C-alpha cells in the first residue's frame, strides 16, 4: 500500500539530488515580477530614461501621465515594480491598483485605501510618526474604508470620498511629493461598462501632484480612446516596450543561472551552448517566454535524470509550453475572436479575410476588424501575397488547434 506522505517525501528528495547533479541549488527561473531586486533586471535603458524624465518633470509641476505598452510577457509588470521602489526612494506616495470593471466611486475607495495602508502606516501596522498630527482624521477615514471596502454605504457618498482624498493630498502629503498611481492590465478599462470611470479620469488625471502610469497591450490607449475619446489627451506619454535584444536575452539567462549555480559551475551550465542559442532564437526576445522555457527545461531534466540540458530537452519544453500558452491565448480571446481563430485552423492555419467571411457568414469588415485586434495582440501574423493579405496563426495556437486529436 502506497503511503502518500512517504511518496511525496521521496519524490522531493530525488528532485533535490537531481538539482545538485545539474549544478544548481534551486531553479532560478521564477516567473514572478521583480520586487525591488534589480540583479535580474536587464536592458530597458531607453524606457527607464523616459520614466525618469517623466518622474523628474512631475516633481516640478510638469505632470504627464503615461502608458507603458507591449505584448504579453514583455516585462511591463517588472517595469512597474521598478517604478514603485524608485518612487518610494524619493519618498513619494505610491499606490498599486489592479484594473477591473469598477465605478469611479469604487476606484476612489481603492485608491484611498492604498494611500493610507501603503504610505501612511509603518511596517508594524501603526500610523507613521510623520503623520501623527493628522492621526484622528486619517484613522477615521481608514476605518471607514476598511469596514466597508467596495460596499461603502450611502452615508459615505462619492462627494465625501473626494473631499477626504483632497484632504490627504493637500493637507497630509508633504509639499513637493507626488502621489504615483500604478495600474497594471489597464486595458480592462476599455469596456463600455467602464465609461463612467473613464469620464471621471478626464478630470482626475489633471489633479496636481498625481502621476499615473497605466500598463497594458500595444492597443490599450487606442482601445480606451474608442470608449472615451477625451482620455487620449490625459495620457500624453506612451512608452513602448520592444523585445529584448539577443545580448540582453543572453544576459537574462546568465544572471539567473549565476545566482543559483553551485560552486565550480561554468558558463551556462547545465544548459549547453546550443540549447541557449535555441532558446534565444525561438523566444523572440520575450522575457516571460525565455524564463518559462528555461524553467520547463530544468523540470524535464530533473524528471529524466539528464545532467545536461541540450536542444532536445529545450524542444520538449517548448512543445509543452506551446500547448499551455495556446490555451491561455484562447481563454483571453472574445467569443467572436475565438470563432475566427478556429475557422483559420480549419483552413490549415492561414487564410484571407474573404475566405473567413465565407466560412463564418459575416461581413469582411467585421472579420477584418477582429483580425486587426488579434494581430495587434501578437497572436497571429500577416503577410501580403500579390493582392491578397494572408493571416497566419502563431505557433502556440497551431499547437493547440491544428491537431488530429483536437475537437472544435
TrEMBL record:
<dbReference type="GO" id="GO:0003700">
    <property type="term" value="F:DNA-binding transcription factor activity"/>
</dbReference>
<dbReference type="InterPro" id="IPR036388">
    <property type="entry name" value="WH-like_DNA-bd_sf"/>
</dbReference>
<dbReference type="Pfam" id="PF01022">
    <property type="entry name" value="HTH_5"/>
</dbReference>
<dbReference type="InterPro" id="IPR027417">
    <property type="entry name" value="P-loop_NTPase"/>
</dbReference>
<dbReference type="InterPro" id="IPR052026">
    <property type="entry name" value="ExeA_AAA_ATPase_DNA-bind"/>
</dbReference>
<dbReference type="InterPro" id="IPR011991">
    <property type="entry name" value="ArsR-like_HTH"/>
</dbReference>
<dbReference type="InterPro" id="IPR001845">
    <property type="entry name" value="HTH_ArsR_DNA-bd_dom"/>
</dbReference>
<protein>
    <submittedName>
        <fullName>Regulatory protein ArsR</fullName>
    </submittedName>
</protein>
<dbReference type="InterPro" id="IPR041664">
    <property type="entry name" value="AAA_16"/>
</dbReference>
<feature type="domain" description="HTH arsR-type">
    <location>
        <begin position="328"/>
        <end position="406"/>
    </location>
</feature>
<feature type="domain" description="AAA+ ATPase">
    <location>
        <begin position="62"/>
        <end position="245"/>
    </location>
</feature>
<dbReference type="InterPro" id="IPR003593">
    <property type="entry name" value="AAA+_ATPase"/>
</dbReference>
<dbReference type="Pfam" id="PF13191">
    <property type="entry name" value="AAA_16"/>
</dbReference>
<dbReference type="InterPro" id="IPR036390">
    <property type="entry name" value="WH_DNA-bd_sf"/>
</dbReference>
